[in-house]
């Protein structure tokens, strides 16, 4: 299979485009090009000057035609497993029932990856945009850049769902409703959702509000509760610790860091148990709870602008440049 890796790094200065001899496209600023040249002059990428830390954020994109299953096609095209898992998890959050990914004919997908030139371990690559297309419909998914990482879902250009996940890189391991308890056994009501993630993963507020409670509660372990409008709270449990300086009464914005994933309380491993409650009645965080809280993330009038910007950015990642001024860099 003839494969191309599509690579782009975006910066504030006017970007430059390189089509290298190994068919890799790279967008770098003049300052980043200068930095890369200094590596070639003897300062290896694995051991640069520790007094000059440098991190480059790169954008990758793929256009994939499904041959068998979408999972296999994404793996064949070099999409990182963490991006594939995040993509599927987000679709689970936003689609009820989830999409059958094997039925989609084409996929456009992009993600970001940080490269630390001082050889520090970077975070996992992170999903930014995806478009699933077949003869019936176009489904587009955007993870907004910036502080809140809100997720938007479009169907044929219409915004049909949005959500601020409490954790971006997590596996949905248990849904709301009756389930067999993983510790005590037997069928019990599960009042929230469980998101498995590594110990210490940041946990974000899913909507604006006020810190109503920080403390320990029985099997929940360390708990933070955020009070929202209309007698609604969001509850975050099993934390290892709360964010430094966070206190009851603090005003919280969507996407603010509340604490870190832990194993406090009754758990089988590091995870976040997340609830939404209305008048102390637990509601499904992925349906009713999400509808109540998500209205504060994006207003309907600006959603199309967000969609068009995401499309344009994807096209700039995979686009071909004919700028002759950088021809020497690919020789």
From TrEMBL:
InterPro entries in alphabetical order: Cell_wall_metabolism_enzyme, Dup_hybrid_motif, M23ase_b-sheet_dom
CDD domains: M23_peptidase
M23ase beta-sheet core domain sequence ranges: 189-285
Keyword set, alphabetical order: Hydrolase, Signal
Domain of life: Bacteria
Pfam families assigned to the protein according to its UniProt record, in alphabetical order: Peptidase_M23
Keyword Metal-binding part of the UniProt annotation: no
Molecular function via GO: metalloendopeptidase activity
SUPFAM superfamilies referenced in this protein's UniProt entry, alphabetically: Duplicated hybrid motif
Listed PANTHER family: L-ALA--D-GLU ENDOPEPTIDASE, PEPTIDASE-RELATED
Record-given protein name: Murein DD-endopeptidase MepM and murein hydrolase activator NlpD, contain LysM domain
Organism for this UniProt entry: Halomonas cupida
